[in-house]
Amino acid sequence: MPKIITIAREYGSGGRLIAQKVADMLGLVYYDNQIIDLAAEELGFDIRTIRKASQERSSGFLYTMSGGTFQMPLNDQVFATQSKIIRHLASHDSCIIVNGCADYILEDFSQVLRVFIHAPIESRVKRVRDDYKEVHDNELKYVKSRDKKRENYYNYYTTNKWGALKNFDLTINSDFGLDEAAKIIVEMYKQL
């Protein structure tokens, strides 16, 4: 039975960097943007369109007509396709999945360590500026807006609340160090 780690995170918390460290330490396959790329391929859209759709919840009004039938909005198609891909990957191989809704998508899988990475807002703004090398007019506002998008998306597509402790087996403040956070996740994974 494959053992899976899902990682959700606040923007700028270093969750992706931690996930990569854990993957290296455990020798696991790491999935992040590859899931979006696979969804784009399956849906027949370019990757930029799918990446944008994968970050925004559906408005519910954008049903399209194709071949005389109505299709669900692209955002909903992307979520459904990503869910199918995540479930397929988790069924076939132990891996790490960095996806905001993976904890929910795999809620009926028994061998899953659900992790949420967070950090104080000041640390996240600093990481975005210094480590991610992103430049924004108002960095604080940008980080908060990215979190708000993640929250809206998660709350729309799941029956859970984004960032709620009860959704996760482990929550880690990345200010204790990315390497230290990775080591904790590795130790918890070994307990599955």
Automatic annotation (TrEMBL):
Keyword terms of this UniProt record: Kinase, Transferase
Entry-linked Pfam families: Cytidylate_kin2 (PF13189)
GO MF annotations in UniProt: kinase activity
SUPFAM superfamilies per the UniProt record, alphabetical: P-loop containing nucleoside triphosphate hydrolases
Protein name: Cytidylate kinase
Lineage: Bacteria, Bacillati, Bacillota, Erysipelotrichia, Erysipelotrichales
